[in-house]
Structure formats: structure tokens, C-alpha cells
Amino acid sequence: MTPLSTTHEDITAGALRGAPGSRLSDLIDAHLHMPFPFRSSPHEHQAVAGVEKWLRETGLADEGWVPEMIARTRPAQLASYNGPEMDSGLLQIVADQIAYQFVFDDRAEEIGRQGPGRLLPMLDESIAVLRDDAPPSTPLGAALADLHRRVRERCTPAQAARWAVKSREYVHGLLYEAVAQADTAPLPTGLCTSIRSLTAGVEPFHPLCEAAQPCELSDAELQHPVMRRLTRLSADAAVWIPDLYSAVKERQTGGMINLALAHQRARHCSLPVAAMLAIRQINHAIDEFVGLFEEIRPRLSPSAVGYAEGMAGWIRGCYHWSRTVPRYADAAADPV
């Protein structure tokens, strides 16, 4: 594993020398280590049509900005890259949930910028739906209730319960993000990554990775310290990679919860140097994931192996999706 550099000079004198005019995407491609090969689902086109239909049926597409945003984020493509072995039904749940989280996250960001307190009604409805099966009062709440119903129909009770708990953590994370955005004090890198692990919304999909396996995992497998560490590494690496590609966009809009920008604020350095620091952190996480998985693999059941491979799929999928999705086109446009 490559230790994280702590000096600008170490990075600038090495990776960045002789690359004037390079794009951020070139820097990422040159230095990010991705051991998992590209894969996609044969059901991707079906999932694309399914997402569009579901957004219309839930009323989320009625707001003019949503169809355009979905076209720029391609949730079904992300689901396809993350879960290439999922059957069409489970893949559709994943694709619809990704689309929902994009809508929810963008709405929360817009409202949260006006003040964290303004988010409370929106977040309260979501928690009530997830925790108490309360009837929804908005299209966003209705979409979440529909996802909750479908997850319970497809998953075991234990898997559905884990999905609901992780989904509530995601909702709470958006409030933390709004508070951080409203604070004028510099945000420490560690706090930024802690909030990012919640707002990423990756861990709610881990129970769906489990549901794709032939059997439910035992508590001993799920709670094994190595498996718990794999869960953390998967979620972190999967969201830190898009942070690299979204850094230009986030910097332009004043975003705070971004790994590369957190390094830039902490080191008072250029964006390329900050991106290299973030890349080294991501590479370290991926290398640790691979090493721990190989260590524990012989002791896992076939379903647990498939579950861990599903978590690895989120690292791979987020990388290949981030490289081409229109939402992050800025990384491949302007020189850094």
C-alpha cells in the first residue's frame, strides 16, 4: 500500500511535472488504481426505461428539472455497472433507488443552502416512512414508500430492516451536510469524510447486494470485523472516486463535502495536488479492500463471497460511471 504523502513537493515533483494543460480526468486515469475490470448488466436498457416510467408514476418527473438531471446522471447505467449479475427485477429496484437519491440529494442541497432548519419537514417525512410506515404526503415521500414496499417484497425481513436503517443514516447525513455548509469555519478533512460516508448513500445498497445471493448471510459473517471493514472501505472508495470527478463542479458551486476539496482546504494547495492526495487515499482503501477480501475469502460461504464481490462492484461501477457521466463532464473539459 502506498502511504499518503504529506507534502506538496513530493507530488508536484513526481506525478505533476511536465503535464501542463492536463485535464483532471487525465490525472485520475493516470494514477487511480482500479483492479476490478469493467462490467455491465444485460438488463441496462430495460432499467433505463423502467426508471423513466417509475419517475412518471411517482410524480417525481413532474418537476421540469428532474428529467434533465436524470439524463445527466444516468442512474440505470450506474446500477448496471454496479450490479452486472443482478436479475432484472432487483436491478430495477437499485436503478430506481439511485434515481430517487439523486432527486432527494439535489432537492436537499437546494433547500439546505437556505438554512439547515428548512430541511426538517422533508427529512421528518422520510424518517417517518422508513421507521413507522407513515403515509407520505409528497411525491418524494411516496417514491420512498414505494421503494420500501418493493424492498420488503424482494428481501428477507432482516435484509429489509438493514436497508431501512442504512437509508435513515443517509437521510440524517443530509442534515449534517447542510449544517456543515452553513458554517463559515473551515471543515476538518476527517469530519468531511465522516459526513460524506453518510451522504454517499452507498450502504443502503449493501443489503440489496446480499439479496442478490442464493442465501441470507449469517450474523457471524455480517458482523465479522473483516467484513465490517470491507463494508466501510467499499462505501468510502465508491463515493470518493466520484468526488474526484465532481471536484471542479463542487468548487464552482461552493460545495464543502468533497474529498479532494477537503484536502485542498487543509493543505492550501492547487486542485491537482489535492486530487493526488485524494487518489492516494482512495488507492490505499482499494488495496486494503483487496487484501482483506483475499484474506477472509476461504472462510466465507459462497453467498458471503458474492456479497463482498457486490460491494467491490460498487467501487468498480462508480469509477466507470464517473468517467463518462455528463454530470461530471467538467473534469474532462477544462485544464487544471
Automatic annotation (TrEMBL):
Its EC number is 4.2.3.162. It comes from the Bacteria. It holds the Pfam family Terpene_syn_C_2. InterPro entries: Amorph_synthase, Isoprenoid_synthase_dom_sf. Keywords: Lyase. One of its GO terms (molecular function) is lyase activity. The keyword Lyase applies. SUPFAM superfamilies: Terpenoid synthases. NCBIfam families: amorph_syn (NF041563). This is (-)-alpha-amorphene synthase. It comes from Streptomyces heliomycini. The lineage of its organism: Bacteria, Bacillati, Actinomycetota, Actinomycetes, Kitasatosporales.
